[in-house]
Request: fold
Amino acid sequence: MTQSHSRMHRLGDIVAKLGGELLGAPDIEIRRLATLESAGPGDLSFLSSAKYLDRLRDTRASAVVLGKAQRAATKLPRILCDDPYVYYARAAQLLNPDERPAPGIHPQAVVEAGAQVPESVALGPFCHVGRGARLGERVVVGPGCVIGEDAQIGEDGRLGPSVTIYPRCVIGKRVLIHAGAVIGADGFGLAPQAGRWIKIPQTGRVVVGDDVEIGANTTIDRGALDDTVIEDGVKLDNQIQIGHNVRIGAHTAMAACAGVAGSTRIGQHCAIGGAARIMGHIEIADHVTVTATTFVTKSIRSPGTYTAVLPAEPGREWARTIAHLRGLERLSKRVGELEKGSKPSAKKRKRRK
Amino acid sequence: MTQSHSRMHRLGDIVAKLGGELLGAPDIEIRRLATLESAGPGDLSFLSSAKYLDRLRDTRASAVVLGKAQRAATKLPRILCDDPYVYYARAAQLLNPDERPAPGIHPQAVVEAGAQVPESVALGPFCHVGRGARLGERVVVGPGCVIGEDAQIGEDGRLGPSVTIYPRCVIGKRVLIHAGAVIGADGFGLAPQAGRWIKIPQTGRVVVGDDVEIGANTTIDRGALDDTVIEDGVKLDNQIQIGHNVRIGAHTAMAACAGVAGSTRIGQHCAIGGAARIMGHIEIADHVTVTATTFVTKSIRSPGTYTAVLPAEPGREWARTIAHLRGLERLSKRVGELEKGSKPSAKKRKRRK
Amino acid sequence: MTQSHSRMHRLGDIVAKLGGELLGAPDIEIRRLATLESAGPGDLSFLSSAKYLDRLRDTRASAVVLGKAQRAATKLPRILCDDPYVYYARAAQLLNPDERPAPGIHPQAVVEAGAQVPESVALGPFCHVGRGARLGERVVVGPGCVIGEDAQIGEDGRLGPSVTIYPRCVIGKRVLIHAGAVIGADGFGLAPQAGRWIKIPQTGRVVVGDDVEIGANTTIDRGALDDTVIEDGVKLDNQIQIGHNVRIGAHTAMAACAGVAGSTRIGQHCAIGGAARIMGHIEIADHVTVTATTFVTKSIRSPGTYTAVLPAEPGREWARTIAHLRGLERLSKRVGELEKGSKPSAKKRKRRK
Reply:
């Protein structure tokens, strides 16, 4: 099969470690997690939503994780819990523990004088660690990474291949950064003068908190004067762009291709949808959801969901919608003319108020 | 001139290899292809659309490729064929054959024990090939690529510089991947619990079919449990983002900056425009065209073109459009009032039904 | 503090070098620049807009840069000038001069035979310079860059880590390219034939002028036949995508995540907002501003601002807007019915004309 070699676990051991109520034999062997559809013998599956109940009926999984309310939804061996999706996440972590490579500095890595690389670090080939850079205990750095002068990476950090950390940036503990991400390149700071652009040196840093995840090819610019800050527990998907001097509040998650322009502050516990864009120099409150592809142009002061999504339509329907949109001015005038012409109804309207 | 050194070909040789009807001397020497505007002696050009007929009149090309219907459109030496654009593609392949570097493993590449790298492979400097990875015959890997443990690349594959293939991903035959692409980084799998995000290990793979092209800095996430699948002949432009567990059907093409959220299935022979976005967990039928920048929010069951494009307007016009759009509720109420007031016409409407 | 170690300057020296009128003691020591809010002793700050006058009142900066009209806005030591933001840019350049690494070819870089790398060049570890490539005087290349065969980089150019320059591309003088940028990968050239895509070899180049800046993970495709051209002084932010055969006019700036499809020509001195998209095969005049996220679908012949921004709204309001938008056809018919019914007013309308 297509999966990594998980170790074998017994169902009873899983429940002992992760909790939940076990209905079924505790010695059932579980080798991996799988969706209801693709599961087979040796697989543990889960029901994340009642709409998949028919899949539950047909699954060949050896056991399933269910919400407490679904106790009678199957006769399969099952674990009942509060939140099957969270349980699945925990079980997946249990069955697929991080495989850390053996510690050591690869002979084809270059570590400059004055850099701190503890013995517990695994530094891949073709990495360059600049003067004064400091890596925490047990940091794992994939091949081809560049860690600039005086940059810091906290303990248990993991960098995928070809990640760039520019000088003086600070990465917290247990941060996971995927391939090709660029942390701390210059912000886009230009002053216009006589038709030309004068570059403004970007002298701030990027400061990333603990337990942050940063997706592949995501870019986070260093601050112009002050720092760009990504607080604890923030999760950034792939190809996200964070401008200079942005601050992203703790435990906010942003889906792929989202972008935040310079100096904007996003609150804590926000959820920013894929390809959403957020204007510069504004503030977003805590607990705000922005839907995918939406453009936020001004500050948002209250929690809630904000959107401006135009769903795709068949071409001909959309063409009519656009024509009507373009014709709104005329339509509005026609209504005005009618109102002038229909005096009685106009009077009636006034009387009602 | 600015072009690579094509070898010289005679017009007759080109027709012998690629077909078409030659009107003109077969011994005319052709050194390169060029647009009608920039062509000069020694260049073969082509007329892809009747709207460029005036450029044909002025071209200095030594010969041109034309559709059969354009036989009399010029007196230049010419090749008549069914589809000049396809002919141009074929001729360009003939005149610009792939230059494969000499095979061999660069002394500054690192190949881990148990990796299979055939003698016909050209592995560039600063590449890292993980344990158990398998490269097919004649694969060319540019400098700085990282090929993870147990990953596979089929025969005649070509990787530009700094490409990352994460562990266990499978790349088909004759696949071309441009610089900076990242195949198989973790999907964005998070379970929310008590205001924090729990990471869901991503244990699936990316499986890429044969004859696929993947653009620069494009990212394709590995599956959460099952695989992310890119079928044969798919063409992905630059900076595309493909979420976990997506399946893209054979021969579908996606232009730059498009994005597909997790678990969505796109059919075969689709054309997805630049910066188009496709919601997660939906299905797109075969032969669907999505226009550039459009956001597809729900499944599409029928072939055709789908769109929601808002074309740019001069700022003042757009401001009025937006104001009218915002005023639609009021306008609608005003029309309702008028209808109430104009009883006769309301009656008339009913009578007609 | 968080900033790089600027050298100490005296206020009088700064004015001597950059101009402006000094009100205050010329021997005040300035160590760095800072915003009004974060400044402390030893810092020079600036007032870029009258809306920050309250911050000026509270600042702890040792001196400030002000517009001439603000002469009396503070009693702090101050420099009066025409454009405080430009002055700040110049002062920042003065206080934070580029730190060029010591010249030399790192022993773990690979330079192929026939490449020209002057002694004044600093070539980082794990760089690969192809046959025939030519680097100008004082070029600085970060770790892990790949410079293809016959590519050129003009004098005083600077490449961040992991930049790829594909073969034969030409980069001008004093060009700054940030990490992960890819210059000269294949354009997206495909000819459809019988349900498959035939690749069109991309034989043009990318030609970049002088004084250009290119952001992290930005991609610029090589031309299909002719070149893709980025003229002098163009500034491109991160994650921008430039298609093949595009030409971007001198001194145009594009914010992050913007994209330009193939063969489009953008004029000089344009400002393209973040995530704006520009259709292929069109022309944009000089001095055009395109707002962030706007999609330009056809040529723009006159200077000015062009937009189609839909600002985010609270979800419920947007749902109503969309419903009304979808209902426009019906609303329009209702107005038509009213017009038919209200003959008198229709007559009146005619009489007025």
